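Convert to structure. Protein one:
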Amino acid sequence: MEPFETVTGAIAPLDRANVDTDQIMPKQFLKRIERTGFGEFVFWDWRQDEEDFVLERPEYRDAPILVAGPNFGSGSSREHAPWGLQDWGYKVVIAPSFADIFRSNCSKIGLLTVELPEAEVRALLDAAPCAVTVSLEERTVTMPDGRVVPFPLDDKVRENLLNGWDDIALTLLREDKIAEYERTRERQGPSTLSLG
């Protein structure tokens, strides 16, 4: 994954609470075996059923920052939801709260989840499509009115995102220790020779 530092751009407002992973990425699109190409299916049902679905509007279509209501990403643990959001073009999702496994799945692919107080999220929703700046280095969001609002983020998640380290990269960082273990470990195991 690519290292993450700062994103400045328009915000796309999804003023809904309890958006679950089936709403983000409906089940009928989970049959693919690759991790790419899911963007076209994000919020599929809403995009098909609502005449003027907010995220389809031209002023929001290319926004790199999605702002939503509380409990975003609840429901099943499907990784396809973060994959689709990232493939659609989002680099940051801001909400008052996230489902834990959704937040974890996002951090593993470089999609930053930013938790802000509800009042700040409301200010962003009302200001859309104004641009904001999200700094991972500083752990801050520069609001449309110029205020700088801090957000909490686990130190290890921050380090991984700043360096672009996914699980494979973290394993490769320890490649020398893995090789040493393999060279020195005991190799005896059960005998596969026939007794008869």
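Protein two, convert as well:
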Amino acid sequence: MKFACVVCIFALYILFLIMLLHVHPENPQPRHITRITECLLDGGVIIYPTDTIYGLGCDIFHHKAIERICRIKHIEPQKAQLSFICHNLGDLSKYTKPISTPLYRILKRHLPGAYTFILPASREVPKILKSKKNTIGIRVPDNLIARTIVQELQHPILSASLPGEMVEEYTDPDLMYENFKNLVDIVVDGGIGGMIPSTVVDCTKDEYEVIRTGAGIFELE
């Protein structure tokens, strides 16, 4: 009986290690990144750090994983207006329609950074992620963990804010683990997260419009 209890405790400890991965923010461990990307490719849902607040994420090509995130947030996929994380500006040519040179220069000046840019979506973007206006929110965060995951995965991951009313609920990885361990597959602990979301800029209009003021200071010049 004593041996069985020890085995049970050890199994729970291993489960905790699998669920809560401590990833170095400046030198992400390759074995952890591989485990995270394998989880995403299998349709898993993760919580991961960005340069602003922690986010809920999944592979953008896993429809059911996106629906899981929408259930966690209690929103309908068609009304969610979800965005995703890219590794760098090179992804724009695949997931957005051609943009002007001046707009590209603006994006290059602000990214990586604490911004979400609303851009015309290309056909490569899954329909569930497009808004009614056929647009998509694009992020390239200044966070090595998030961008290393995307680089390893070789395509973007979903970016959705965590539900929570208290600051600790979306900044403290240990508390996130306690709150979401039955809802997500991995909590990526990259340290205490930020409290302010990204600045959202709509670039689909003639005059670019800041529709949410957040951590990034948007300047045209």
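Residues 82 and 129 are 6 Å apart (CA to CA). Residues 3-17 have pLDDT under 50 and may be disordered.
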